[in-house]
Sequence to fold (229 residues):
Amino acid sequence: MSRILLIDDDLGLSELLGQLLELEGFKLTLAYDGKPGSLELALATDYDLILLDVMLPKLNGFEVLRALRQHKQTPVLMLTARGDEIDRVVGLEIGADDYLPKPFNDRELIARIRAIIRRSHLTAQEIHATPAQEFGDLRLDPTRQEAYCNEQLIILTGTEFTLLHTLALHAGELMNKEELNEIVLGKKLMPFDRSLDMHLSNLRKKLPERSDGRPRVKTIRGKGYIWLP
Fold:
């Protein structure tokens, strides 16, 4: 049973989500604000996913996420105000795996949750079938979702690792944004959705430069991306 931590100060919504998620087979823990106790709860327990509201008393959602990312890479789905593009961009820059604007459809929420958890977990058969792989100076371990450059660990979120691994597996090929969005984020690319761009931007910042100075990823404007071998 997947464990989810919901941090949201809307008591009514939290109770409704609690009932929905339990009916869908998830084990839910509730926290009602961004005070240090909620952050400590997120750090002390290994959750499969954290649902994190942006507008929280005490510490806001961004502050909670920023503090969390200093210690753990637990998948985070941020709940934002509808139409607030700045909130979405900031959340993705800090390290959120995805966002969902309020009010949202219950089915879409469950689909997003399942997609994120599915990406972050490998079945025993998949683990056995995916040993560590080397791509130039990078070594990727799908079992642990860990990336190394010259044996130095690169701290990545689960979404960033999936993006890196997918691009590296298709080195030299143009991967269009629609296909990549489906694989990495588990959803169709919608107009004006910059989630994939933000995850790639974060990934580029974290990857060390190559010794020869060549870029690792080339952007083909209006089409997609190419991992340069």
Remarks:
- The two ends are 40 Å apart (CA to CA).
